[in-house]
# Entry
Amino acid sequence: MDQKKNEQIQKFGGAWTVIKIDILKQYLDAYTTALKSQPFNLVYIDAFAGCGKYTTKNDQQDMPLLAIKKDTDIEVREGSARAALNITNPFHKYHFIDLAESNFEQLNSLKAEYSSISSRISIHREDANEAVLRICKETNWYDYRGVLFLDPFDLEVEWKTIETVAQTKGIDMWFLFPIMAVNRLLTRKELPPEEWQKKLDKVFGATDWRTSLYSKIQARQTSIYSLLPEDITVKDTDIEGIKEYTASRLRTVFTKVSPSARILRNKTNSPLFVLFFAVSTESDRGKEVAMRIANYILKNT
Ligand SMILES: C[S@@+](CC[C@H](N)C(=O)[O-])C[C@H]1O[C@@H](n2cnc3c(N)ncnc32)[C@H](O)[C@@H]1O
# Structure
């Protein structure tokens, strides 16, 4: 692929970025193959689609499946949108959503590049929450089944979006949950400031994180005037605890949530994201097949 001078390729990620796209692509391939003979139209919704590719420093394990071009110190790789277009059995419909103008333009070029299926591709320059709500409402889930990929940088995904997705009963969701960003908002020695609490309410769609992730303890006497020890609220969780709490929230709306959610770490081993997989179908067979494929990929990638 030519790297045009004025083209802005997204620069982000590290080894975890390669892993997430690898997992997603394997699932999309398996999904469209498994449902090939089923009487459904298949839709892929990429709510934070980026521009179709990204660069990483060339210092990670070799992944020839995903590498597009090698340079001396950077690699240009398939982003989620391109990965979804490069699978063996394409979807009947693609929705690529991104707010950034340069990404919108590059997604339109990507659409032109895939001319044989370009009529199946819709590009939306829109907030992901608004676009996903609209697409969920406009799609006839009696005829359609689909996969949604939520791949935000930060805390952009709102709980009402997750709830609406689950209500379709037709979507399998991959959600890259920004656990480091959430952990930062969960202050240690007291509940977070009001503004952060509101943000966490929107992310979790619940208020009980205040009691699930925090405990009341008796503080030591803080001054000579305080006769009785006071109760103070302190953070009582870690990354595993936040991951489990988030999974429990997802289980309230999805019919099945993978127990193999994967923590993705940076070079220094700090946890950045958790890749969750959840299905909304009520069909036992559908749940079982989707979970078997997703769990296998999550454990073996
Ligand atoms: C992590 S990147 C996505 C990477 C992409 N999935 C890939 O694999 O190449 C996050 C993207 O979300 C976009 N974005 C940020 N906030 C958004 C919002 N509220 N709605 C839609 N897109 C948003 C950014 O422009 C950025 O391209």
Q: What stands out?
A: The pocket of S-adenosylmethionine is lined by residues 10, 12, 21, 48-50, 54, 79-80, 97-100, 103, 127-128, 151-153, 156 (CB under 6 Å). The first helix runs from residue 15 to 34. The first strand starts at residue 10 and ends at 11. Residues 1-6, 59-64 have pLDDT under 50 and may be disordered.
